[in-house]
Amino acid sequence: MLSEKMLMLGKKSSCIREIFEYSKKRKAEIGEDKVFDFSIGNPSTPPPQIVLDTMKKILNEKDAVALHGYTSAAGDLVTRRTIAENINKRFGFEAKPELIYMTCGAAASLTVTLKAIIKEGDEVILLAPFFPEYNVFAANAGAKVKAVLGVGEQFDVNLEGLEKEINKNTRAIIINSPNNPTGAVIGASSLEKLAALLEKKQKEFNSHITIIADEPYRELVYDNVAVPYIPNFYDNTVVCYSYSKSLSLPGERIGYISVSPKMQNAGDMFAAVCGAGRSMGYVCAPSLMQYTAAVCDGVCPDVESYDKRRSRLYSALTEIGYSAVRPDGAFYLFVKALEDDAFKFCERAKKYELLLVPSDDFGVTGYVRIAYCVTEKQIEDSLPAFKMLYDEYMGEKK
Ligand code: PLP
């Protein structure tokens, strides 16, 4: 009677969501401030004031019928023009408004892009560790997923691994930089090598391999680390962007897809994006948010406040004895679990009311993800719990 696949997806929520739900239950039992929930990437800094003011101004001043009516299916043209101009100014690129499609956040950008390009038998490569929902999005498009584990302590792009995994069926590779869960940023030299490898493989198999650049954390970087713009390195690129994290607007569901004009048959690619959006009902993204995005495109998040939390948590945990990937961006810390089984480690952490996410669904074993987009107070209050957890493990080793 029902789609078995959808039933299963609906019944089993993501590991992140499961812990997030547990945290709500636990907080109701013992009090908000007693539970250290590091599960979900929900920004704890409010949207920048200019975003809030712009939303109010638009609501007060724009004609209500126009404001609340449908935009074009692909989005409001003025918004798309503004976004294209901004991309071109910042990255010296040549993005085109007619190749930009407004969406309900990165999740929609990714599902639409995958749906637009995947055919029966196609494969999508993920670089592990990766955002777990990629598996769901790719499966929905009908793709077979292959994961290539990053190399070294920072999980750098594994070119050798990719060389082995790419075959005639490889249709796309999802790149997420700054990365969730490690916070790593892929530098220009790695991108150059990756682009050269993909060009070579395209020639070898006479195929198209698309880079899907998932960039919701593009502006969230520390120590002035540069985030190279991938379409400047590789023509066959589609950028999936979201304002969820950069403007602290995850609940408002707004983002976009930008098809590179350098892509072969870019016009057809965009038409397929429109078709995929249409087939899944992702048309006319929320209009108030489109107009707000146009005015606020380029507004920066409060990087300093995240940086403070990143530095405090990273140095406190490493001082205790944990080892972690030092993040250059996003707001996650990827920490080595103190036993091989990250699920068991997270269960033990719960004893101290520490809610961490095991790394298995991210395609790597033996780590946990800590989302530090929480209050500074939560970080401070949680440190004794991290210390007790560490001491418990070390006590056993003696
Ligand atoms: N991609 C990555 C890497 C993410 O971390 C997230 C959300 O946490 C998403 C996509 C989905 O973002 P959105 O809320 O804009 O749909």
Quick gist of this model?
With 398 residues, this protein is α/β, with parallel strands linked by helices. It is built from 14 helices and 13 strands.
Count of helical regions: 14
The residue ranges in which pLDDT falls below 50 over 5 or more consecutive positions are none
Largest sheet: 7 strands, mixed
Measured distance between first and last alpha carbons:
57 Å
Global outline: globular
Radius of gyration: 21 Å
| Hetero compounds | pyridoxal-5'-phosphate
Describe the structure.
The chain is an alpha/beta fold. It has 2 domains: 4-48 and 301-397, Aspartate Aminotransferase, domain 1 (Alpha-Beta Complex); 70-296, Aspartate Aminotransferase, domain 2 (3-Layer(aba) Sandwich). 45% of the residues lie in helices and 14% in strands. The chain has 14 helices and 13 strands. It has helices spanning 4-11, 15-30, 49-61, 64-68, 77-91, 105-117, 133-141, 159-165, 188-205, 266-280, 287-296, 303-320, 342-350, 376-397, and strands spanning 36-37, 100-103, 123-128, 144-149, 170-175, 210-214, 237-242, 255-259, 324-325, 332-336, 354-355, 357-358, 367-371. The strands form 3 sheets. The chain has a 7-stranded mixed sheet with strand order 2-8-7-6-5-3-4, sandwiched between helices. It has a 4-stranded antiparallel sheet with strand order 9-10-13-12. Helix 6 packs parallel to helix 7. The radius of gyration is 21 Å and the shape is globular. Bound molecules: pyridoxal-5'-phosphate. Pyridoxal-5'-phosphate binds at residues 41, 105-107, 131, 176, 180, 214, 216, 242, 244, 250, 255.
